[in-house]
């Protein structure tokens, strides 16, 4: 008597529910860009709301976006930004 059990396998084609790595990467890239945009605006708005005599240089705004891009990859830093600048 054979104890071999064959399990049914299903494969997904090009229809609904199929896996598309390019779509997943594109979606995560869009989510990352949206997150960076959202929190860079919040940080700049906070700075400008302090009514300092000096404005904010465009290079500083770009530096914030660069830092946020790095923070997005680190779950702890990302959560810190989200809870601090809600």
Alpha carbon gyration radius:
22 Å
* Strand-residue proportion: under 5%
Number of strands: 0
Most strands sheet? none
H/I helix tally: 3
> What is the rounded distance between the termini?
64 Å
Structure description:
With 86 residues, this protein is mainly alpha-helical. The chain has one domain. The protein is built from 3 helices and no strands. The chain is elongated. About 9% of the residues have low confidence.
Task: List strands and helices in order, with pairings.
Elements: H1 21-49, H2 58-73, H3 75-84
Q: What characteristics describe this protein?
A:
elongated, mainly alpha, 3 helices, 86 residues
Give a concise summary:
By secondary structure, the chain is mostly helical.
